[in-house]
Amino acid sequence: MSRDSARGYCQYNICRGERNYSCFSSPDFYSSLGLEDFLSVGDTSGAEEDTDLAILYGTLRGSVVGLRYYTGIVNNNEMVALQREPNNPYDKNAVKVNNVNGDQVGHIKKELAAALAGIMDNKLALIEGVVPYGAKNAFTMPVQMSFWGREENKEAVLDQLKRHGFKLAPPLKVGSECGFGSKWISGRAGPSYSAPVHAAVQLTTEQLKSEFDKLFEDLKEDDKTCEMEGAEAVGTPLLPHQKQALAWMVSRENSNDLPPFWEERSNFYYNILTNFAEKKRPKNVLGGILADDMGLGKTLTTIALILTNFQDSKPLPVEKITSDKFYELMEVVKLTNVFFNLPTTSASSYNCFMSIIHLAALENFQTTVVSYLQYQVTTYGPSSHLGGEVKRNPNSNCFCYDQFEQHIHQDFRVNIYVYYGSDRSKDPSVLSEQDIVLTTYNILATDYGVSDSPLHKVRWLRIVLDEGHTIRNPNAQQTKAALNLEGHRRWVLTGTPIQNSVKDLWSLISFLKLKPFTDREWWHRTIQRPVTMGAPGGLGRLQSLIRSITLRRTKTSKVKGKPILELPERKVLIQHVTLTEEERQIYQSVKKEGKAAISRFFSEGTVLAHYADILGVLLRLRQLCCHPHLCINASSSFSADNKTSEELPETLVSKMKLVLSSGSDEECAVCLESLTLPVITRCAHVFCKPCIFEVIRSEQPNAKCPLCRNELRVEHLVECPLEEEIDSSNGKKSDREWISSSKINALMHALVELRRDNPTAKCLVVSQFTTFLSLIENPLKESGFAFTRLDGSMAQKKRVEAIHCFQSSQAGSPTVMLLSLKAGGVGLNLTAASRVFLMDPAWNPAAEDQCFDRCHRLGQEHNVVITKFIVKDSVEENMLKIQNKKRELAAGAFATKKPSASEVKQTKINEIKALIDL
DNA sequence: ACCGCCGGGTGCC
DNA sequence: ACCGCCGGGTGCC
Fold this sequence. Notes:
Layout: H1 27-32, E1 55-65, E2 78-84, E3 95-98, E4 104-108, H2 110-121, E5 126-131, E6 140-149, H3 154-163, H4 205-217, H5 240-253, E7 262-265, E8 268-271, E9 277-278, E10 288-290, H6 298-308, E11 319-320, H7 323-340, H8 347-362, E12 368-372, H9 398-407, E13 412-413, E14 416-418, E15 436-439, H10 441-447, E16 459-466, H11 477-484, E17 486-493, H12 503-511, H13 520-532, H14 538-549, E18 550-551, E19 558-559, E20 562-563, E21 570-577, H15 581-604, H16 611-626, H17 649-661, E22 678-680, E23 686-688, H18 689-699, E24 718-719, H19 742-757, E25 762-767, H20 770-782, E26 787-790, H21 796-807, E27 816-820, E28 833-838, H22 845-852, E29 864-871, H23 875-892, H24 901-915
Parallel strand pairs: 10-17, 10-18, 12-15, 12-16, 14-15, 16-17, 21-29, 25-27, 25-28, 26-27, 28-29
Antiparallel strand pairs: 1-4, 1-6, 2-3, 2-5, 3-4, 5-6, 7-8, 8-9, 11-13, 19-20, 22-23, 22-24
Helix pairs in contact: 2-3, 4-14, 5-6, 10-11, 13-14, 15-16, 16-17
The structure holds a DNA duplex.
């Protein structure tokens, strides 16, 4: 059956919706660059930057006045929030007092407010309040305030208070909110003035991380070990741990429990962290975080959930197609088509009809929107300039769609729809007729604020964020958009719930709409600070919160005493290749020239200024190791180089572009990972867009390039799509007559041998350079191999075809797949292959591993053998050495600190030396 | 009395 | 608010 409906809306409008960035003069400028995701534009909740560094300056007793004018009520010992109200017509210093629910309780008395206003406006301190007693007073009540801030601001704060005649009590007492001690368990976290704050030693990153890991490791065989069978429509048999996850997810969705930290007490619901109480029963999230390691089948489990738990553990009513049913359906198709006046022959009319059945079956319920980052190709500008007109790659959603289809039993019909953004010309009700709507965060964000966006109008039955950890920036439009979707069953799928710190969890929790954590202040006061300050009980809180909403298994977890995954063995062999005389000659001459240039840069001290040139040299050498024809502009740019070391930025930037467009998997010097969304600086260094924007944000207004300390400005950044996102013109490969290379010979020899020993064995041939893959096609044809190809430049439909074709076990199906290193997403499944030939090494060993995991994963039945071809006495051997160093570093230093900018710089320089044998 | 004192009106910011 | 503060009424002992 055709799945044309999956194509969905094709137009992609950039609509920013209405945002009010009153603090910034030119919001359009920022949003046109997509910058609001990275700079805290319009963020009014300042001071929370670097909250980890905050210390307690002291406390002060004040009063809340005007109680009778407001509806917000508090309990004794309840936390309150202080909020500046600069536009109050009676007093520009006004400070509002709100309860945990956000309802105003009153105002800070004006004399005090006059002292606080400056502190708050200049973000010198975070002021937090607790009402110790007198909560039932009619006119005023006391408030105990704690002042938190960075050491260097302490004097200024004390000074400001002094000028208004206030003095902080020394921080000997600790307010109730941190609950230092374990009293939060018993509730009634009354003010405890016993524990000295000095006992609250900050945990190091390492300590924290290992504590987090314990959060999950400690999970005993508890309530999460029940198993549940998937509905009939689930097409893939579930493994025991997936059945456990399914049972847990279903029970979460059907649960009637109170959310964590809430208790019912005499007709009231109490939050034992904040002491907030209300009559209304707080909503629990009918969902949570599925945090299994990559490769354990989170997506499959979620598909099973969608099909299995529609209402009260009943499956989603999807049509089962039997033969007579099919006939019956065809009859209705005709009728429907008449009714809707649709052309009877087209596939789309069939889809339209399918939608109608499900609408009837679903009544008013819409079902699930799954936000897919895992498979997303993010928007990029066609002109490669930031701020240029943003265009979407229309072919970016194949794999998620494919994966959904592949796990749903073919006898069942489920409407799956890929949503590409709002389009006014289409009827928005299309979405509500679907069983499953797939989209990406960016589309979600783009649609957010579009007044007639169907995504944000539909009441979803279930909202799933795949790769949910990417929602980490609380100010990002994506986060806000995800948060605003309506629907009670909410799930986050992520293999890395915590990457750096507890902070990472907040956005996930916030998405789940767990009261009161949606507001950062309460999260921070009740969970994050107690944990990072090492307050006893802090981790306990975090643990009980996480445990109640998260399921996490790692690859080493066990189910009923057995390892969760029993993957076949995986071996990595290195096959050395010797270049022919001619190849060696070309290689050596390019190397000699490059080495001379690079040593000149070293002696001039301009290595980093010539980063693009150096990467260019290294790239040419790497290409020459593969095939002489890869090196398009082998004639070096140095040969006639009579200019000084100062090159025009434009030249350097275009050199860098050239390197990136070759397909080379370069690294970002900020995150040290493979580049995602590369942007080139004016000084011709390349970073991930999010990474460099974070640098700019944190160093503004005078940000400097992490590598060379040159001026860094957003306007100068040039976005550079990765090779696989460009429609690479495969056409012009026949310029030259085809010749072989040592590496190709080595590959072909191995392939022929493999075919002789095992004619049905399938293998992946992987390279970073798609032109190299094209060159390999020739001998494959000549030797009669059936092969297919998957690279980033291919249209979506072709990709799906290639994967299906390759995964097929039919006789005559391709045994070789030419695969570009970075093609496809993490979810790509190529388990049909049991051999991998890696034609060229990558800088980043993790990028290689990730590629190997596409076949060495769940579903692989054979031992996997990986062969890396490495040219002897070449840059490739040096690359291996560097790779090994990185591996050691990564393995030994699980929790070591991120290297500093200067360390990164030095490492890079050392690497360059090592690579070119200097 | 351009004061003190009294007692009613009144009440956040 | 069973307060403070304000401002009008008032005024020997």
